[in-house]
Amino acid sequence: MPRPAGLWPGCVTLLVEPVRMNSTADAEPHIYQSNVTRPIAVDVSKVSLTFDTADGKVEALSNVDLQIGGGEFVSFIGPSGCGKTTLLRVIADLQQPSSGSVTVNGMSAEQARLGRNYGYVFQAPALFPWRSIEANLKLPLELMGFSPTEQKQRAARYLDLVNLTGFERKFPWQLSGGMQQRVSIARALSFDPELLLMDEPFGALDEIVRDHLNEQLLQLWAKTRKTVLFVTHSIPEAVFLSSRIVVMSPRPGRITDIIDYNFPRERTLEIRETPEFMAIAQRVRTGLRAGHSYDE
Amino acid sequence: MPVARKARRTHPLVKRSAPVVTIVAVLIIIWYIGAVLMNLSLVRGGFEREEAPYTTMELLEGTMSAERPLLPAPHQVVGAFIDGVFGYAPTAPRSLVYHSMVTLSATLLGFALGALLGIVLALAIVHSRVLERSLMPWIICSQMVPILALAPIFIVVLGAVGLQGLLPKSIISAYLSFFPITIGMVKGFTSPDPMQMDLMRTWSATPRQVLSKLRWPSAVPYLFASLKVAITISLIGAIVAELPTGAEAGIGARLLAGSYYGQTIQIWSALVAAAVLASGLIAIVNYAERKVAQRMGARS
């Protein structure tokens, strides 16, 4: 990726500053971006969710509180069973909380879903195998009643955004896993939702493809200024992508740490070698270890 | 010094058809042996009644050309079949084409009705748990009663309300063929994976959109699998329906007439006609399946 000239020195200046490690730290003026310039995009308030399973009740989420500003990139990280996916599904109104409330763009989660306020990217691409790539991209647009010309234009635009122009007529099985996942991201963006919810979208991909897609996703975020909620297992991925990291732990699923920091929106993979990056990664790791019980 | 081995290439057509030809040949040989053994006493009895001297050769020839053999030899059946198909005008009452067309029309109408009913029932079952619980036991029960027992009842009841000819036969045919379609389509409509269903939910798709854009296309492979079962069952239903009605035309009528008069060759040639019809119907469904799969981006 060609780096814009002059960005790197700016980045260095930023990195010389102390990294803001805590959301509760006093608000210094942000030089490169602000996390809360736009109104609250997602407001999760005292949300709990209990599943009834054969082994009794499981507290998937316990008293979760979280506010996310417009334009933020928030990663959720934690061991399996910590409720990060469940939290994302609650925000998406794919699951109802047992108690507490969720607001998305000032609406209830259900209203937000009915109003098509977010695009959701799953762990697998979940493309429809009988539809060509273009037809897959058009699917949400068809459902939402866009005109055929508009559908075509948008499909072309968003395929271009994920660098897949020329693949319109291919079918999903003719694309690699990474390309398919890019199609599913384009599909989630195609109707221009404010909010992008991503549930371990790169979990099934190999390291090299994942790095590449991480960079692309960051460019996308910088370009579109969407609010992104991103669930992941990977510490480097979380630190590299985010403006804020939410560390969660299981039994019961809860938030144990929130790390707020400011790398520039346009960053490259080299940033992973800097001490600041490692400091944040270390803090995430410590948080994960503290929350994880090793009793089994 | 390496010996140059002459490459023995088999023609692809030979490669593909060799197994089939072999099996058919073996079956025909077994059939001939069976015909000789089964007709032997019959033919011998004939000679002895006439008190005529006979040689073994004549005896064997007799088993191959008896007028009403227990088991007709393959060439007799083929001869009668070819005669039945080409020997008469297609509208003549002795023409197998005529009888096949009568049965085919009942089969196709019954198949269409059965497919429609099967799909409608599957839709109802998929969309409502109450309907699933109330309908499913009856659907299964309907197939536990032998159709041979039911067919006369159907014919009589429908005859009483003035329905005769094609329609009662089609209804019996539909009664048999809706079942595999219902079972297959219930499976097909519920085959989309949860992630795809969740996606439709995130786009707040209406139930009708979920049906047309997701459930229906997902069910297409299941549809064709059950259509193949259903279309042969439709044919059986139509033939069975011709048996108790004393129908004058149709493959079933030919079978019945043949058995009345001990015309075994006629029975067998009617059976061959039914088999040819069934293969043709399956081939049509297969062709449609291939065409649809192509359009739906299946890897070829």
Quick structural summary:
With about 300 residues, chain A is of the alpha/beta class. Chain A has helices spanning about 5-15, 85-90, 110-115, 135-145, 150-160, 175-190, 205-225, 235-240, 275-290, and strands at about 40-55, 55-70, 75, 100-105, 105-110, 120, 195-200, 225-230, 245-250, 255-260.
What does this structure look like?
Chain B: This is ABC transporter permease. Chain B: One of its GO terms (biological process) is transmembrane transport. The complex is a heterodimer of chains A (296) and B (300). In chain A, α5 (148-161) packs across α6. In chain A, the strands form two sheets. A six-stranded mixed β-sheet of chain A has the order 6-7-8-3-9-10, with helices on both faces. By secondary structure, chain A is an alpha/beta fold. Chain A has helices at residues 7-16, 84-91, 109-114, 133-143, 148-161, 177-189, 207-224, 235-241, 275-291, and strands at 40-53, 56-69, 73-77, 99-104, 107-108, 118-121, 195-199, 227-232, 244-249, 254-260. Chain A is built from nine helices and ten strands. In chain A, a hairpin with a 2-residue loop joins β4 and β5 (107-108). In chain A, 35% of the residues lie in helices and 23% in strands. The mean pLDDT of chain B is 87. Chain B starts with 11 loop residues before the first helix and ends in a 5-residue tail after the last helix. The longest helix of chain B is centred in the first third of the chain and has 39 residues, at 12-50. With 300 residues, chain B is mainly alpha-helical. Chain B has two domains: 1-71, no CATH class; 96-295, Orthogonal Bundle (MetI-like fold), CATH 1.10.3720.10. Chain B is built from eleven helices and no strands. Chain B is 78% helix and 0% strand. In chain B, α4 (96-127) runs antiparallel to α9 (207-242), α6 (147-160) packs across α7 and α10 packs antiparallel against α11. Chains A and B meet through β6 and α4 of A and α8 and α9 of B.
